[in-house]
Every structure is written in structure tokens, then in C-alpha cells.
Specification:
Elements (H helix, E strand, L loop, with lengths): L2 H8 L6 E6 L6 H16 L1 H5 L2 H28 L1 E5 L2 E7 L5 E7 L3 E7 L3 H6 L1 E8 L6 E7 L1 H16 L8 H26 L7
Antiparallel strand pairs: 1-2, 2-3, 3-4, 5-6, 6-7
Helix pairs in contact: 2-4
Length: 206
């Protein structure tokens, strides 16, 4: 199951995926480069392998399979290891191998802080870094390393967090309404409040 199919089954009613964030492709260098180097060495020594009869063929085959597994595993983990930003929450999918996956999530009202770190020469040149979502309570912080364009991702999540803090009028309690009215009075001033009262229609008590 690819990551898009997995996410589509996790979405709640009315929830949509806004952005799927992966690590920078530069993080593939160790696995793809290492596996590729093994394949090159294996084929470079192919004549030497086959001079040693059956065990040489076995050795060549084992190195070939191992190199391919290293590459395939690296690409698979990279493609499945994502931070999904939806209209209602952030989902952190941590793929650690072919058969191990850790999933954590948090809604925007539980996010206390969104920060990123860009450290080192390569991170600065290729513009990738670590983004951390600090959450309230006992919930584990969400973190994804080597994220492309962490500044834009921080702005997106911060904006969604601010929108989640704004309640529609139907959800405002009495205390919230009093706070809003006091804020309006402070912004309008005495003269502005007086003008609003003059323009308001009289209440019908009959």
C-alpha cells in the first residue's frame, strides 16, 4: 500500500490533505550510493567471481541481491516517511524499514510551537532542515529531519494553527462574547461606540 492510499483511509469526514512533505532527496545518497557502489564492485569483479566455479556464482549473486535490497529499502523508506498536513491535523509517518511503521498525529489546537533548524553546510546550500512541532500535554513532539523548504512548512502549519484558534460565532461562549465586545469597544473608542448605538435600530419590547 502506497502512502497516498494509506492516508486516504485515515482521513476523517470532511478532512483533506493539503501537503505531503518528504525528506530531501539528498538523504538517499547513503543508501542509493552505498548500494550502487556494491553493484559496481560486484560487476567489476564478475570475471574473478566466475573463475571460482559454483561458490563464485553464489558470491556474485549474494552481493548483487544485497546491493539491490539496500537501494530498494532506502527508496521505499524515503517515499513512505512523510509528514502529512491536512485541514484538521498533522500526521507524522515514520517508516523504519519494510515492516515497521510508527504513526503519530496532533490537531492544530494542541500545537504550542512550530520551529525549524538549518544546520551545516549542505543543509544551508540545499535548503533543508529539521522541523519540530511542540505539542501540549503528554503528547510526543512531532519531528521530521532533512525537510525541504522548512521555512514554508513552518508558515503553513502556523497559519493553520491560527485558523484553528478562531472560533465561529456559533461556538463562542458567554465569556468569549464578552471578550470580543470589549475588544471592539477598545478599538472603536467612545465616539465609535456612540455612533454604532445611534445607527442601531431600537429594540422592540412589545
Amino acid at each position: 500500500m502506497n502512502i497516498h492510499e494509506y492516508l486516504s483511509k485515515q482521513l476523517q469526514a470532511g478532512e483533506e490533505v493539503i501537503q505531503i512533505v518528504r525528506r530531501h532527496p539528498a538523504t538517499l545518497v547513503p543508501s542509493v550510493g552505498g548500494g550502487g557502489a556494491l553493484l559496481l564492485i560486484d560487476f567489476f569483479l564478475v570475471a574473478w567471481w566466475f573463475r571460482h566455479s559454483s561458490w563464485g556464482v553464489v558470491g556474485f549473486s549474494l552481493v548483487l541481491v544485497f546491493g539491490l535490497v539496500v537501494i530498494i529499502r532506502g527508496v521505499y523508506v524515503w517515499s513512505q516517511n512523510v509528514l502529512a498536513v491536512t485541514t484538521q491535523r498533522v500526521i507524522d509517518i515514520d517508516q523504519r524499514g519494510f515492516f515497521e511503521r510508527h504513526v503519530a498525529e496532533t490537531t492544530y489546537d494542541k500545537i504550542q510551537d512550530v520551529r525549524y533548524t538549518i544546520r551545516g553546510l549542505w543543509s544551508t546550500v540545499f535548503r533543508f532542515g529539521t522541523i519540530v512541532l511542540q505539542t501540549a500535554g503528554a503528547t510526543t513532539n512531532l519531528e521530521l529531519t532533512a525537510v525541504r523548504q522548512p521555512v514554508e512548512l513552518q508558515r503553513l502549519i502556523t497559519d493553520l494553527r491560527r485558523r484553528a484558534d478562531v472560533k465561529p460565532p456559533s461556538e463562542l461562549g458567554a465569556a468569549d462574547l464578552v471578550t470580543v465586545i470589549n475588544q471592539l469597544k477598545a478599538e472603536l473608542g467612545p465616539d465609535g461606540v456612540a455612533r454604532v448605538r445611534r445607527k442601531s435600530p431600537p429594540l422592540n419590547h412589545g
